[in-house]
Write a structure and sequence with these properties.
Elements (H helix, E strand, L loop, with lengths): L2 H21 L6 E6 L8 E7 L2 E7 L12 H4 L1 H6 L8 E4 L2 E4 L2 H19 L4 E5 L7 H14 L4 E3 L6 H11 L7 E2 L6 E5 L3 H4 L9 H10 L3 E5 L5 H5 L2 E3 L6 H14 L12 E2 L1 H8 L4 H8 L3 H13 L3 E5 L1 H4 L4 H14 L9 E2 L7 H4 L31 H6 L8 E5 L3 H4 L3 H10 L2 E6 L11 E4 L19 E4 L15 H13 L8 H10 L10 H5 L5 E5 L4 H4 L7 E2 L3 H15 L10 E6 L13 H4 L6 E4 L1 H7 L6 E5 L4 E8 L7 E5 L43 E7 L1
Parallel strand pairs: 6-7, 6-15, 9-10, 9-13, 10-11, 12-20, 15-16, 16-17, 21-25, 22-24
Antiparallel strand pairs: 1-2, 2-3, 4-5, 4-17, 8-14, 18-19, 21-26, 23-24, 23-26
The chain binds ligand MGD (2 copies), iron/sulfur cluster and molybdenum atom.
Length: 727
């Protein structure tokens, strides 16, 4: 977009305001209720519009979950709808730029090329990558699973392995299903221990609880306590009663010690779960070597503090340990998530009001994809190049570039990327960009020509945001209250856009010859609702349509025992893969290793309030103001490096080098620096004219695809060794 186009958007903003005043007495303003689909919080929106003109996007005070919360990103939903840079027709990459082509031509070419690859190289030669927005899009979720199956390929990847894979692996091994998610009951807890999460800014993850500041404050007002463990004193830490710095990557040691204290001091309370538990003795033995005194120097947290926190957790009327992204995207993310579940169980807080609980969602994905009576197949298949484990029909994204670039039978030659931007979001994105160029054929289903889709031969234009219908299959599972809500699209598709689910169906026809059935997201959702946990109360899509603010289905109730899906029906406290992984932890932390003199600083990531992953930066209202992509640096470190705020620093790792603006801040633990993820937009052949004015730099030019949690295969973004100097 030229400068011209940018000013166009500004003019429209002003026009919107004018309309608001003119219209205050007119009657043709309509109101639309829906759920925001940007992050996991599922905020209810009340949108005032006249035809296609948005007048205002406001919080829906009657939404039973969000009760009037929204963040600035919701208001930007209109920007993505109006955005001139949005892809509105199928595009073909040519030597002279992007060329609009018809759907028919696009699909014919995709069908022929992908079938050709599979005919010659086998079905596994065509892969899929699914990004984060799929989780917010019921149609994409439903039909993507069908496409993957029909492709007959095992080569599937997603952002889950750059995020929460360790959670799913723990839940699968302990409860029997990867989506039996233990949600912190934030509204009833008296003690919340937050490890590696910053929900005040992220708005919560694997904990759908819109309005986190209000909910945290309520804990304090009812006499409870909030404790945050983070290498950065975050916005969440600022609101907590206590914050402790921890050295990146050492949370598994902390969690081992917290559990150690409970066993050593006889503070174990198994409550109603005792009869279904297995593995207690094995856990007792496993945590025994990890006294607070032994791990303290490695974590940077005093032994006395570790002891006290364990005792507080055990003594609280109801307590919950919530460990999230920062504790997952690390070398021992698998151990961290296992130990978090163990800690909640043995402190007596699992499946109890105010502890960690399980939802009863109206669309019960766990019931529909039940693992009952099926063996646990985690890791039974290993990736070709690096032998990383297969989980939930996916290999880890950290090895996607290897699978494309490494010669030999089984090499990936065709890729379908759907709503994902792994060039920015995956570790060592630069190598992935190289890999995408090496493909025989690539298709991107996206809303933008961005850092990933620019490598595609064909881009297919998806409708998004205000244009799609909304039912959150995934996030109702993670929510702190049982609710259900459906919204129809507000606006029609533009140009040649299609819904993601329509595109996925068309791809399935073009590549796999799968005939169209009449199913739609609505028909599938309606069936699931009618046969789900609220069938007896008449749950259906029509019922939800009659309740546009959403239906309140009540607080979470203890239900874990009836929901367990492990092969023996028990709750497995000590799955053997975790016990075995402790040897790797011992080697890593307790065998003498030379200090990394070359890269003395430790890099972590952060999220900022007006940005969502890599794709929201083309909104003028979100990108304006001061540079959001800065490196936070402790004042003592800044002094030593002779760097001050506003200066540029060169940050180098074993993978790459970036230059970034410094922001000196005592929020940072000494020796640790923090850089936002999701930036780095100044690339050729993209069309992101607003984002290009504030491109930022890509933190994943510094991370390495070779650093993974070997147990789960999850990417490592915490504690990246870096060197820093003035640029
Ligand atoms: N260093 C570091 N890296 C990280 C993280 C970190 O904390 N640090 N976080 C990780 C996490 S948690 C995640 S989830 C991943 C995200 O990884 P990805 O999902 O790969 O990245 P996104 O930026 O979410 O990319 C979303 C893509 O979908 C497109 N899009 C948006 N809406 C729609 C839609 O409705 N339909 C279609 N078809 N396309 C759409 C956007 O244009 C964009 O191309 O990044 C991970 N990477
Ligand atoms: N504004 C905004 N909101 C978002 C997103 C966004 O991009 N922007 N992305 C969405 C997505 S996809 C997700 S998955 C969620 C994630 O939501 P959260 O899980 O809350 O993730 P972050 O906000 O990245 O917070 C992770 C925290 O871990 C800390 N940390 C880093 N390394 C370590 C470590 O080794 N140990 C410990 N204890 N802490 C560490 C970081 O300093 C940071 O404060 O946010 C979602 N919401
Ligand atoms: S917190 Fe998340 S769901 Fe709520 S308005 Fe902001 S982006 Fe949307
Ligand atoms: Mo994520």
């Amino acid at each position: 977009m030229s400068d011209n186009d940018t000013s166009d958007i500004r003019t429209r903003d002003i026009r919107t305001r004018d309309i608001q005043t003119q219209d205050s007495q007119t009657r043709d303003i309509q109101t639309h209720y829906r759920t925001c689909n940007i992050c996991e919080a599922m905020c209810g929106l009340e949108i005032h519009h006249r035809g296609e003109q948005i007048i205002a996007i406001k919080p829906d005070k009657e939404d039973p979950l969000s009760r009037g919360h929204i963040c600035p990103k919701a208001v930007a939903l209109q920007d993505y709808y109006y955005d001139k840079d949005r892809v509105r027709t199928p595009l073909r990459r040519t030597d002279t730029g992007w060329q609009a082509i018809s759907w028919q031509r696009a699909l014919e070419e995709i069908g022929a090329r992908m079938r050709g690859i599979q005919d010659v190289h086998g079905r596994g030669a065509v892969a899929t990558y699914a990004g984060n927005p799929n989780a917010h899009n019921a149609g994409a979720m439903i039909f993507l699973a069908r496409l993957r199956k029909a492709l007959g390929s095992y080569n599937h990847y997603s952002s889950a392995s750059a995020d929460q894979l360790p959670h799913h692996v723990a839940y699968k091994h302990m409860f029997g299903h990867g989506s039996l998610i233990a949600v912190p009951d934030i509204d009833r807890t008296q003690y919340m221990l937050i490890i590696g999460g910053n929900p005040v800014i992220s708005n919560g993850s694997m904990m759908t609880a819109p309005g986190i500041p209000r909910r945290l404050k309520a804990i304090q007002q009812r006499g409870g306590k909030v404790v945050v463990i983070d290498p950065r004193r975050t916005e969440t830490a600022d609101r907590a009663d206590e914050h402790l710095f921890i050295k990146p990557n050492t949370d598994a040691l902390l969690l081992l010690a917290l559990n150690h204290v409970l066993f050593a001091e006889n503070l174990i309370a198994l409550r109603h779960l005792q009869p279904v538990l297995s593995g207690l003795a094995a856990v007792r033995e496993a945590v025994q070597p990890y006294s607070p005194e032994r791990v303290a120097p490695l974590t940077g947290i005093d032994a006395a503090d570790i002891r006290r926190i364990a005792r507080e957790m055990a003594a609280a009327e109801a307590a919950v340990c919530y460990s999230r992204l920062g504790a997952s995207t690390q070398l021992f993310g698998g151990l961290c998530q296992w130990l978090t579940v163990v800690f909640n169980i043995v402190s007596g807080n699992m499946d109890r009001a105010g502890g960690a609980m399980f939802t009863t969602p109206a669309f019960d994905l766990v019931g529909i994809t039940s693992a009952r009576g099926k063996p646990n197949t985690f890791g039974s298949r290993r990736s070709r190049v690096r032998q990383l484990p297969y989980n939930n029909n996916e290999f880890p994204v950290a090895t996607l570039a290897d699978e494309i670039l490494t010669e030999g039978e089984g090499r990936i030659r065709g890729l379908i990327a759907i709503a994902g931007n792994p060039v920015i979001s995956a570790p060592n994105g630069a190598r992935l960009a190289q890999a995408f160029e090496a493909l025989d054929f690539m298709v991107a289903v996206d809303i933008y020509i961005n850092e990933t889709s620019r490598h595609a031969d064909i881009i297919l234009p998806a409708a998004s945001g205000l244009q799609i219908s909304q039912y959150d299959i995934a996030f109702h599972i993670n929510a702190v209250r049982n609710t259900a809500k459906y919204a129809a699209p507000l606006f029609a598709k533009q140009g040649e856009q299609k819904y993601d689910w329509e595109i996925i169906k068309l791809l399935n026809q073009a590549i796999n010859g799968v005939g169209d059935d009449a199913s739609t997201p609505e028909s599938v959702i309606d069936q699931a609702l009618r046969h789900g946990p609220y069938a007896a109360q008449g749950m259906s899509l029509d019922l939800l349509k009659a309740h546009p603010h959403g239906l309140d289905l009540g607080p979470l109730k203890p239900n874990l025992i009836s929901r367990l899906q492990t092969p023996d029906g028990r709750l497995a406290l000590a799955p053997s893969l975790y016990l075995q992984d402790l040897a790797r932890l011992e080697r890593t932390f307790f065998a003498a290793s030379p200090a990394a003199a070359q890269f003395p600083y430790s890099l972590i990531s952060r999220r900022v309030a007006r940005s969502h992953n890599s794709w929201t930066h083309n909104s003028p209202r979100l990108i304006k103001g001061k540079n959001q992509c800065t490196m936070l640096l402790n004042p003592g470190d800044a002094e030593q490096l002779q760097l001050s705020s506003g200066q540029l620093a060169e940050v180098a790792s074993a993978t790459g080098k970036i230059v970034i603006e410094v922001q000196v801040s005592d929020e940072m633990m000494p020796g640790v620096v923090s850089i936002p993820h999701g930036w780095g937009h100044n690339m050729e052949n993209t069309r992101l004219s607003v984002a290009a004015t504030r491109p930022g730099v890509n933190i994943n030019d510094l991370t390495s695809e070779m650093a993974v949690d070997e147990l789960t295969g999850n990417a490592v973004f915490s504690g990246i060794p870096v060197a820093i100097r003035a640029a």
